[in-house]
Design brief:
642 residues; mainly beta; 0% helix
């Protein structure tokens, strides 16, 4: 006997499921997800909307990584990192404010650079070059200098930097004198040509190497009078140098600047004195003095990220650590003892602070984990958050966080995948036990992403007019297409979208209530449309949201009908402010025959029934759009016969 059943997708908050989840009807969140959920924004209330489009800001001219810089309100900037330079651009219109040249990095190093901002200063680090200090000196001026440690005002060239003996412990150093210009002789070969210019210490007193004679002999200038000239194993050298490498990670935490890992000291951490971020003098190991320590592990761990949360998190290539602290037990040289919490490891993508947890990409590149502090156990737990969506992205290259704005309460992590060209949105509300992933596509490749305050910016790699372009674009609710700008009318000609020459675009009115069609721009970025309805049209690249609900599963009086053939009788859509929607190839009608075509149609709001024919096993119908207009699906019900 045939039975009629109605099944409800009350929400899509679980996002898009992995292809391996399609038969997991036993999972509690199964009916809160979708088999496909592309180019959508999920809402905490359960519905989904067409994602915002992007606003074109600038042609960057070459491969670029974007990093946001926030100083104060109305003084926000975009650092566009490129080969050997930074273009400082305005987030308002993408214009170049100034260009910082002679930067030590190359294109291949852009996404391995770590950074930290405090006030008007941003520190950039990479193990292959000196730490860089980018400082805002005025509303439109910035300077770049090699990072310099604080110096003793009373003693020229005495530098408060970390030191370590990299040479074999048994090698002795013999100075030829105690003051002035002297030679330093080692008992075994070690000196490298790159040691010239490096400070060393002999029995705690500093000298600067000025020349190299051989692997055992160098010239030096005494900075602090030496206590003797005897051969001694008590000597060391500056941690950061061309010989031994530079910091791999950086953050500001508990009023200290923190550097993590070099090529020669991959699992060491250097922390400045309290409230003195450029002073790394260990002094007498008092509570406020600098800290120099390492991770106590049974295997070498390369520090890749330092994350400032309630505690200092230390992400390495093979483990996760944290340094315990509290108001009554701050981090000091005596208390510094990081604890290992898990053994997953992190890749190069910077972790995000989102929803009271730190989100990091595992070293394998396939798993994303959140590390959250358990107050009861006083430990951190690292749990996978993409088990149900492991194929949304194939790899991760850059990340940003959005924590809501004046129009949207949701908070997201956004990741880019250069290999597929896609981006992925991770939304989370731990209090409501909501989380899920949604992939985004575009006509090109999402290349880099970052935020400034509550705004998200992408670098997008596109092929336009047979040429490869790297465009700076802002995620914008003002547009329903990508790489968009507003064009104005002159006669019957609209233009010019000079960045999209000879490219097919969609034209939408600025109210986002009517689409005027598909046009191929000419060689000047213009198109012809004879209309008196509008004088300004938004044009850009079309993308379509795609929603394919999960397969219909369940049981009735005769047992499970999950794998049986069934008839989908109708789909019941609850819509809000929707101007275009298609299901099963059928577009819902907005206009009536007596409507005035010169006026924008009314949005679809309420409940709408769409009837279907045919039998199949899954009872699914694709929901999408043919026009670049707003769409919000609050809920979906399906009536079936089995």
């Amino acid at each position: 006997m045939t039975q009629k059943l109605e099944l409800v997708n009350t929400n899509f908050s679980a996002g898009q499921f992995s292809s391996q989840m399609l038969t997991r009807e036993d999972v509690a969140s199964y009916n809160s997800g979708a088999e496909t959920l592309t180019n959508c924004i999920p809402h905490l209330q359960g519905g989904v909307s067409r994602r915002p489009g992007t606003k074109f800001l600038a042609d960057l001219g070459q491969e670029t990584r974007v990093i946001g810089f926030y100083f104060v309100d109305n003084q926000e900037y975009l650092f566009c990192l490129q080969n050997n330079q930074i273009e400082v651009r305005s987030p308002t219109d993408g214009s170049v404010i100034t260009t910082i040249t002679s930067c030590p990095w190359t294109t291949s190093q852009l996404f391995d650079i770590r950074y930290a901002q405090a006030g008007d200063t941003t520190i950039f680090v990479h193990p292959d070059f000196k730490m860089q200090n980018i400082k805002r000196t005025g509303a439109t001026t910035f300077t770049r200098t090699d990072f310099t440690f604080e110096e003793d005002s009373a003693t020229t060239d005495k530098i408060f930097q970390p030191y370590f003996k990299f040479a074999d412990d048994a090698i002795t150093l013999t100075p030829s004198g105690t003051t002035g210009s002297i030679t330093l002789t080692l008992s075994s070969g070690y000196w490298d040509a790159n040691h010239v210019g490096v400070n060393v210490r002999y029995k705690g007193k500093q000298l600067k190497i000025t020349g190299r004679t051989s692997a055992t002999v160098v010239d030096a200038t005494v900075i602090e009078t030496l206590p003797s000239t005897s051969a001694d194993i008590e000597w060391d050298e500056a941690v950061f140098s061309d010989v031994n490498g530079y910091a791999r990670s950086v953050t500001f935490h508990s009023a200290r600047m923190c550097f993590g890992g070099t090529k020669s000291l991959p699992q060491h951490i250097m922390m400045s004195k309290t409230n003195a971020p450029f002073n790394f003098d260990e002094g007498s190991a008092n509570a406020d003095e600098a800290i120099f320590g390492q991770l106590g592990t049974d295997k070498v761990s390369e520090i890749r990220h330092l994350v400032s949360t309630t505690h200092l998190l230390i992400n390495t290539n093979n483990s996760e650590f944290f340094q315990p602290e509290s108001d009554n037990n701050p981090i000091t040289p005596a208390s510094f003892l990081p604890r290992r919490q898990s053994e997953y490891g992190s890749n190069r993508v910077r972790p995000l602070n989102l929803d009271n947890a730190a989100i990091f990409v595992q070293d394998s590149g396939l798993t994303v984990r959140e590390i959250e502090f358990n107050d009861l156990l006083q430990t951190f737990e690292s749990n996978s958050i993409n088990d149900f969506a492991d194929d949304v992205l194939s790899q991760f290259d850059d990340s940003a966080v959005f924590v809501g704005d004046s129009t949207r309460i949701e908070q997201f992590g956004i990741y880019t995948d250069q290999s597929s060209g896609n981006a992925a949105l991770y939304h989370s509300n731990r209090h409501q036990k909501i989380f899920g992933w949604v992939p985004w596509t575009t006509d090109g490749s999402f290349w880099s992403v970052d935020q400034v305050d509550d705004r998200i910016f992408f670098v997008v790699k596109r092929t336009i007019n047979s040429a490869t372009k790297y465009f700076l674009e802002e995620l914008s609710d003002s547009f329903t297409t990508d790489c968009s700008i507003a064009t104005t009318k002159g006669g019957t000609t609209f233009g010019a979208a000079a960045h999209l020459l000879n490219t097919s675009v969609r034209a939408v009115n600025t109210a986002k209530t009517m689409e005027f069609g598909t046009f191929t721009l000419n060689g000047s970025g213009q198109f012809t449309l004879d209309t008196d309805l509008v004088s300004t049209l938004n044009v850009g690249l079309f993308f379509a949201p795609t929603i394919l609900p999960v397969r219909i599963v369940g049981s009735a009086g005769g047992g499970s009908f999950s794998s049986k053939r069934k008839r989908l009788i109708r789909s019941i859509l609850v819509l809000k402010d929707t101007f275009d929607i298609t299901i099963d190839g059928k577009t819902l009608q907005l206009r009536q025959v007596d409507d005035d075509p010169s006026l924008a149609p009314s949005a679809l709001n309420g409940t709408f029934d769409v009837y279907h024919l045919g039998w199949d096993r899954f009872g699914q119908r694709t929901i999408t759009q043919t026009a670049a207009l707003p769409m919000t699906l609050l809920a979906l019900s399906r009536e079936i016969a089995v």
